[in-house]
Design brief:
87 residues
Length: 87
């Protein structure tokens, strides 16, 4: 059984992410970087190849968390904007 990628935090918000990517090129770039970093972290932590220094992985985790925070802020603003439009 393959373990789920714990870095795939935003799977339930894919429709909002796709909409944001269409309207905001910076969001698209940040989200793309986050996805690439998430995939790389997942691969590093689950590979049987050469061991990777903890410092390197920790730095990547820290960078991914900054990107997550930025993405979460965008999603919150996007959801608030959608809610205001519905009223």
């Amino acid at each position: 059984m393959k373990r789920q990628n714990k870095y795939r935090k935003f799977q339930l918000q894919q429709k909002n992410i796709e909409a944001l990517e269409k309207e905001n090129s910076r969001f698209k770039r940040v989200y793309s970087e986050y996805e690439n970093m998430s995939n790389e972290l997942w691969n590093l932590e689950n590979s049987n190849g050469e061991p990777v220094p903890d410092d390197f992985i920790n730095a990547m985790v820290l960078q991914a968390s900054y990107l997550e925070d930025e993405i979460e802020d965008w999603l919150l603003q996007f959801n608030e904007k959608k809610t205001k439009i519905r009223h």
